[in-house]
Amino acid sequence: MNRFLTLYAQRKAAATTEFKGRGARRVRCTSCQMPQQHCFCEQAILQNSECGFALLMHNMEVLRPSNTGRFIADLIPDTHAFIWQRKEPCQGLLELCQQEHWQPYVVFPASFSQPERVHYQVELEPKCKPLFIMLDGSWREARKMFHQSPWLDQFPVISIQPEQASRYGLRSRPIKGQWATAEVAAQLLAMSGEESNAKLLEQRFNVFTQQTLAGRNH
Fold first, then answer.
1. N or C end: fewer C-beta atoms under 10 angstroms in the chain?
2. What per-residue confidence (pLDDT) applies to 1?
3. What residues pair up with 83 in beta bridges, in sequence order?
4. Are 75 and 81 in contact (CB under 8 A)?
């Protein structure tokens, strides 16, 4: 079951107005959200993985065709998706984190967190698997979610240190240290020893970016 697509369907059904973001008029595949002529759903093959991902998504991010977090759910079976609420903790995510086999990490840049919370490597307790909590939204939205969610303070922060700027140019000019959700997830998979899954996710992200930019230029 693709939990992102389930959340997407629920969010779309609850919407009172039609999404009017860039490219909203295009006829898109209902799964990968690419224009139909560029659909690449056949490449969405679930892989074996010891990692889990929890997409904590801004309310509008769920509907954006430019979202890249959904590509994680195409490849990694244990990918969960929740909508962030400003005033209330996400009980579904907290219940997931309480399961004994998961070791949760909030994924965020070290420069925005308390130093004592920050880790740069995946360090697991016996019989535990990493659960990476991804704050999925625009950079501005993600910072808001991080600072306005005190219920996440109980979890350590894991931070990647990319040496190059993001290749994601669909929303704003790439800035060093600000990466797309799928790019960060690929780094985390590699950090966890799953290089093959990391490469597959990078490939999926690259195809999406190239085809989307080509469509805009056309």
1. C
2. 83
3. 57
4. no
The C-alpha R_g of the chain, in whole angstroms, comes to 17
Alpha helices in 59-180 (DSSP H): 70-75, 91-97, 139-147
Alpha carbon distance 166, 175 (integer Å): 7
Axis crossing angle, helix 181-191 with helix 195-217, rounded to the nearest 10: 160
| Predicted structure pTM score | 0.89
- Write out the two tokens for 177: 């240290």
Task: Give phi and psi for 79, each to the nearest 5.
Answer: -115, 125
Q: Report the C-alpha gap between 166 and 180 in whole angstroms.
A: 7
Q: Which among 25-34, 126-135, 177-186 has the top mean pLDDT?
A: 126-135
Burial of 94 (0-12, 13-18, 19+ CB in 10 A): middle
Under 8 Å between Cβ of 104 and 155:
yes
Q: Of 122, 100, 81, 108, whose CA–CA distance to 178 is shortest?
A: 108
> Which of 204, 187, 179 lies closest to 46, judged by CA?
204
Q: Report the distance separating Cα 118 and Cα 156, nearest Å.
A: 6
Q: Under the phi-then-psi rule, with left for phi > 0, alpha for psi from -120 to 50, and beta for the rest, what region is 127?
A: left
> What is the DSSP code (8-state) at residue 211?
H
Q: Is the pLDDT of residue 25 over 80?
A: no
